[in-house]
Amino acid sequence: MAFGFPAFHTERYTLWEAHLDAHELAVEAILALRWTITDESDDTIRASTGISLWSWGERVTVRFRTGKTLIITSRCAIPTQCFDWGKNRSNVNAFLNRLEKLSSPADRDLR
Predict the structure, then answer these.
(1) HSE of 70 in the Cβ direction (CA atoms, 13 Å)?
(2) Amino acid 65: pLDDT
(3) Where on the tree of life does the source sit, at the highest rank (predicted)?
(4) pTM surpassing 0.85?
């Protein structure tokens, strides 16, 4: 459970398969999670999650760095929310799990 104003969680992930398009996979992962893309550029995607029993929603940012490295941050939508009850870590993990599934050879063959 993170503590801060607003609470957040960040992780770095490297996509090892050079022939894959990290930006395209990130968009697919966000849409598969049913998050809403709010802003998109070559180096950043911003999305929002819905309101749930545990939160008023989160803002997820995926930043693309050289070498197929992504930096994923989930932060609470309300700036004064200092506890996230693990929701931001859960968002980042859900995104990374979906990204890994989409980048696996078996799943790519199904698309």
Answers:
(1) 25
(2) 94
(3) Bacteria
(4) yes
